[in-house]
Amino acid sequence: MDCDWVESAGHWRGSFSCMASPCEILIDSDDPNLAQLLTKLVSAEALRIEQKYSRYREDSETSKINHSAGQTVRVDAETARLLDYADQCYRLSGGKFDITSGILRKAWRFDGSDRVPSPAAVAALLEHIGWSRVSWQNPLLTLPPGMELDFGGIGKEYAVDRCALLCRQATLVSTLINFGGDMYISGPRHGDGEWIVGINDPYGSENKQAGILRLHRGGVATSGDARRFLFKDGVRYSHILDPQSGWPVPDCPRSVTVAAQTCIEAGMLATFAMLHGTQAEDFLKEQHVVHRCIW
Q1: Which residue from 36, 121, 162, 176 could staple onto 26, CB 3.0 to 4.6 Å apart?
Q2: Are residues 176 and 125 in the same domain?
């Protein structure tokens, strides 16, 4: 994987592409050797996770499960932890966070066009959705024929937290890991201690900000439809789909940003908020987390 690292404003920035996203690590140090070491460490771990869980690779764990044709599969400890987490998210969300719902991509293409699928096309996929139909008894998984798992809803946030752990094991220097807007800050910077995180404006250009967060430590994640949507007959269709209906959640925010203890927790709360639609803000207030909803 190609990586770059440059010095900027008193810190080093390493960058690479992975998981269909621009990825970076900011290192609160003037040591170029440390910058090179951490960038290579983070990029290698991100690539490992992408290769292991990508649904596009025939040799991935995800493909092995999805091609199991109803046979029981024994998974490794890392995959088991992700499945346990997905099971927890399913239960906490009342079935609205469901890693079997990725199959809806066969009907929905959120490319900014007006190509909204027919109700019949969506309905035909619902019989292949439902985590409750999956038999999961750690470490044994049985996926009914015709169903698929997709770790896309938690994979990138998990990768951020994994990379953050490796950095903490390698150095006491503060780092900020950012994979396409999902990030983790390992600790306070030198000086005032703050890392300043910009919140993109979903109504403006990619570089326009709608606000900032000032953080010393923790995870940040954003969920929204600024880049992935459909628009037809005056109606905007968000890519946040309700797996129980197969259709976009109505009247949800354009963007939700959440700060939490870990990136995967922040991502879960941001997605849960979007699934709450008009009640997104009330849901986040009940969680007592730093957040920003943009409607």
Answers
A1: 176
A2: no
